Amino acid sequence: MPIKCHNRVLLLLVILALAACALPFVNFAPNRLMSGEGRAVWQVWTFSPVLLAIALVLLLALALRQGRLPLLLTLILSELLFAVLFWSAGLAATHLAAVESPLARTSTGSGLWLWLALCLLACSDAIRRLTDRPLWRWLLNAQIWILPLLLLFSGELNDLSLLKEYANRQDVFDDALAQHLTILFGTLIPALLIGVPVGLWCYRHLARQGSVFAVLNVIQTIPSVALFGLLIAPLAGLVKQFPVLSSLGIAGTGLTPALIALVLYALLPLSRGVLAGLSQVSPDVLESANAMGMSPQQRFWKVQLPIALPLLLRSLRVVAVQTVGMAVIAALIGAGGFGALVFQGLLSSALDLVLLGVIPTIALAVVIDAIFALWLALLKGKNDD
Length: 385
What we know:
Strand content: under 5%
Mean pLDDT: 86
Low-confidence stretches: none
């Protein structure tokens, strides 16, 4: 009787994990300035071949089984493997620093990155199959990070080159985080104050939608670097004409053109989200509210807004994540943030410094996306009740 695979996604991930064994697990360099050499997993972790083989065999066996128990075991095994890989990277860095030199730098290799990504994909697939309830999915995804975060804050990973770079530049990193958050909230608040009224105006004046969205679409198609550059000259001329603006912090470069450009980029998704959300309210619902004697303001706040809120939150979610990413490019015109670390690392060919800007940017985007996902899950649960 032929063996049937009930989880082809997990089977594919196991095959890719086997291929990842051929890639370097960590990269070791005698010091910060020299380029590193790759070390395979069995060179830095003595028991790795046996433990990894056991893990892969168990995952392969679980891929052949059907039911909730194999999925639950897949989730547990994948997240334990994820945490063990994190721990082993820190252990390898500590061992190499003790054996070779205190100045040695050990960074994560492409094999380890691929292993970590495959573990997360296996966890995500198992969670998707286990439950279709958004809140439970969110909680299961969130608990994956408990062990890695405990390892991070316990100091077990401090000998990795990225954390050494953080220790050397902690003040610079803290300033970059504050600047990035300033750009984020400095974009979202004005974008909401402008985008929501624009969406409402388009909803109430259908004939104006074409011209409004045509302008917003044109803005959206302009590359971010080009838009930043286009704003420099007008703002510099404005400040020269009215010197009092300089005392308010307005300048041709820096935070001002970055915020203006990012707000302009945010208007299209926000206004479309408002329009789409309000448009999905059934005319019958509005007629019922009207028959109950509700005023236009009451209909909006008690009927239209609650129905339109999920779509508006999804649009705001897209804008927030988009802003976190695009704020990196804004460092080119002196806006600061994590982009300053990224470009400084690129100019000095320091990969750890680049990662010190890139990884927190990704983490910030993931956290913001998770917050909105939780909000939407709670909203859906409230509506279902």
